[in-house]
Amino acid sequence: MTTGAAPPVRRGALVVALWLAGVAAALVVAWRAHYVADLSAFLPSAPTPEQAVLLDQLKSGATSRLLVIGIEGGAPGDEAAALARAEASKRVAAALRASGAFTSVHNGENSAWADAGRFLFEHRYAISPAVDADRFSAAGLREAIDATVSLLGTPAGSLLKPILFRDPTGETLRIAETLTPSRAPRIDHGVWVSRQAPRAVLVTTTAADGADLDGQQRALAAIRSAFDAAPAPGLRLVVSGAGKFAVESRERIKAEVERLAVLGSIVIIVLLWLAFASARSLAVAMLPVATGVVAGIAAVSLGFGQVHGMTLGFGTTLIGEAVDYAIYYLIQARGGNGAAERWRRESWPTVRLGLFTSLIGFAALVFTGFPGLAQLGVFSIAGLVAAAATTRFVFPVLVPNGAPGAGFRHQLARFMSAAASRLPKARFGVLAIALASIVVLVVTPSPWHGELTSLSPVSASDLALDATLRGDVGAADAGALVAVAGASEQAALEGAEAIGARLDRLVAAGVLQGYDSPARLLPSAATQSRRLAALPDAATLAARLAEATADGALPAARLAPFLADVEAARAQAPFGRAALAGTPLATALDALLLPGDATRPWRALVNLQPGDNGHLDVDRVRAAIADVPGVRVVAIKAELDAIYARFLREAEWQAALGAVAVALLLAAHLRSGRRLAAIALPIAAATLAVLAALALAGAALGILHLVGLLLTVAIGSNYALFFDHLRERGEADADTLASLLLANLTTVASFALLASSGIPVLQAVGIVVAPGALLCLVFSAAWLGRGAAGAQARGKIAP
Amino acid sequence: MPRRRPPQAQRPERRRFLAAIAAWGLAATLALAPPAARAQAFDLGALTTLLGRVQSGEATFVETRRIEMLDRTLQSSGRLSFKAPDSFVRETLKPRREKLAVEGNTVTMSLGERSRAMQLDASPEAAVIVEAVRGTLTGNRATLERLFETTVSGDARAWTLKLVPRDLRLRGQVSAVQVSGREAMAREVMVQLADGDRSVMTIEPVAARSPS
Q1: DSSP character for A613?
Q2: Fewer CB near the terminus (10 Å): N or C of chain A?
């Protein structure tokens, strides 16, 4: 302790008290933190309004609430099994409709449309696209009635009969046509079934938002229990959809975080035991780590309002780095009275400089534009500062003489000394590796072609199942989204109508199978008014009807209900969004019409169904609707890739700036080009070698690999600084060498654990940092210099 | 699908088959045709084999539909054509132009300028009638047996094929489809709906080709 007014003992007690208070406060914050594990944190934040719409749709739009269910089992052609599947489908559908967890459940049974059908029938003259003045002229009426009559005596006619005298012009049928997908699933035994496999299929929309993972999990549980409620031997349940992926990913992240935390702790404890063979030293060494983790969680919780599971998983690597501070102190601060003071004088500046370089590295994460990565950065910065501060201020009070116990440190030191004395001879080998790596990187094509989808932990087989089920129900992903913005609800709907009129031509040309537009469910007030105004008054209609049916199949005398309905419709005002409440149409509309507010416009979305070949010609769609004001065609994958590529470029700049900042910091501190080179060269060689190895292995590198490289520089510079410290001192004592090797082993071990993770985000970081940190140590040792390395004989390991 | 039978030609059958082909104006291809089916009894196999020999055809039709609800009969007429294995077009010319084209599992309905495609198997009620007619015209025994309980009566000269949907739900809409014909050509299709409506379509062949 520096001399101060207070006696050392009281001052020490104060430090410990402050530390305990800080840890307690952080614990409270961490305890009350809101933990999440959805993957949207690893979607980049959107820079433009169009991309915001897209990401919003991906996170909580209609697609994110769609769950497709398959009921499988039985051989193809086995009628009994087909019947059992159909029965199971009806049972599950009924249970799900009753559960309240779904706003729509479709399995091919018509009953699902009863409510919707009633609404559409009652508002048919406002909704039917066929209604205009021509339609209600004598000739138009004749044409329309003849068309309806031509369906009588066919199975389709049996649906028309109950409403024939109220709707002889077939407006209800016309509406049904526009709403029925042209690529509907096959129907067998009254329910939807796959065309490819013995499987009944259902399409559901969850009531819970796509981003509400607890709600999605409840919906999935409801499906499972509905299926399990009645045992159906030989039948299996398969479910797919964004919500399923998200919930499973969350489970996987949770399990992975626990696995990493447990394994990471075990590895560190084993290493520390080897180093100290003392339970007390081990416990002390864990204090900065624990303090750092708690501080990190608290900082993230305070800064972001929530803590992502991935942050915790990544945080286990912090154990690996934070424990280094403890190791340096416990091993280096020994030798009786004043040891702590000597450590603070001799080693702390080096540790502090290493801390600063690490902080610069992590600071780059904070600005990457991925909320998830920003959390990792804040977590690491707070954690490292807390761990270093604990070591610097609390350890001299708690363990003024370092750690007792030698463990295998003799062996570690001997190994490291031997290595350190031989490695400088291999200095040219390191340069050769660096040059070879540069050649590899120049010759091979750039490995920086990672895609956003590569960050997703969803397995290929899950994606294949998803594509299969979507194919079954004709909900194949078109890969594009048409959005039109408007200042008001009406403007957005009018935009959707303008788009619809243009898309109709593409449908006729076969470019599209069809499209879903909100204006089909809720025509704009202007369109509704125009249609209703086209309806003639009762007397006129009666006269025209008499003319139209003069020698036709339908006698005018029986069409009084039609006259009454038209007269009633003439008095109707255009209906609004609220009128649909409680029908399945409301769900469908909500998915396609997004309310605006003071900051953003109303938006109507139009979903496209690609033409017969299944491929969507985005350019033709774009050209066809380009003249509609406020329209945007968003090609989902291309757009996401563009966003990601932009972030990758930005991150490359940030990483480069981070590296320059580290170099400037070192240069400012060292004030020696020679020393700077001896530190920078090994680190540069290590990162180049890792990059070249990944490029040779054919890896697709992305933003997380870049983060890994940055961390390699940040962590590796710590070792290089210590070697620089030893070089300047002219001797390499066994304790310092042993502590470096131990610190390196803990770091490499914890990042190697990350590299073994099944979660791509964590795996990408681990696979870069684990070998990178090891190479940094080895290469730095090569620059130690023979004089310093030779002096290791002077070193001694205290018992 | 024509089913290969043991080559055990019997002269009366062969003559009958000759007559059938002649009626379609296809005598030239006769020499290449495999021997006709042995048929102790004229059953579904024999009928579909007979029908399956005609790969494509065109005909005119006149349809009368009895609509109970309106208490009247509607008449329409137009053209039919089919081509094995699974194309079928019904074009109504009177009283108004309509077209129903089936190709595999895709049904395209055209009415004036409006045209709409749908999947046949997504609409089982429609599929029942389409498959009854298409399956009969192309001699698709497998499809007929899969969807219907079949009863064949008569002989090759004049036969009747009664088709009752196996699916009880469908039977609640379409009670029965009865196709009758002479030799390799269907001449009448009667559809009886469960609600009492009934349509009868009489068919008059106009041309035929067989690439075999």
Answers
A1: T
A2: C
